[in-house]
User: Fold this.
Amino acid sequence: MLPLWTGPVETAPLKGGLSNESFIATDSSGKYVVRFGHDFPMHHVWREHEAMASQAAHAAGFAPELVYAEPGVMVFRFIEALTYAEENVRSNIPRVTAFIRDFHTTMPQHVSGSGRIFWVFHVIRDYVHTLKAGNSRMLSELPRYLALANEFEAAQVPLPIVYTHNDLLPANFLDDGERIWLIDYEYAGFGTAMFDLAGVASNAIFDPDNDRELLSLYFGKEPDAALLQSFAAMKCASLLREAMWSMVSEIHLDAPGVDYVAYTQENLDRLAPVLDAYRGQYGEAST
Assistant:
């Protein structure tokens, strides 16, 4: 029993998480989301940092309030809101883009502690080390994944360093009818805007017109050829990272009801046409 509860507590499981267990808890003071999860070093997840980022995001007006935290558990105030699916993101591109831009520029004023960096190409390379050490079933594919990461990194254009969320799955956006909220700050840190932009696009299956709208709204101008290639490469990197996250989870995690092998394949299947489109537009990398 957590010390914040007032009177009897009713709980119900909250489904959908891939690594943490969550519940809705209601007592006489209101309704809350209780999230259980420990540090995941293999995924660069440290709960102390997540709690700081969550508190900063609430102070900046982007996230629900974190009302209680102790090792292994965090309790957030519940918000009555629509949880986005892919089609909700696509139908709200102007609102989502404005939210992301505001988040990137406002959050550095609220975060504290050491300046954690998120660079997806380092994440992919570190996942290769982790998968080798764990004798992953995907060992034969790792050299190809490394080559892809190096290729996509070389296509990146210089951008300002901002504070990024780095896990913009549709289900992490909540809409209460008046405003958008963003949850789950496990991977938040400093980086360029491109991973968040590519992540929201790849996770919500944007088409080329959606991509151009997103980039034009975010940067305030039509994207040039270099920016378009950088974005296309990062979309591939985003999907590759998600697939490799699942490969690592196959070895190290055991969340109830989650089939990591199937989730790995789902993301590899999503990567294939995006990579084919990239190859069709930009060709094979020179060696």
The first strand starts at residue 10 and ends at 14.
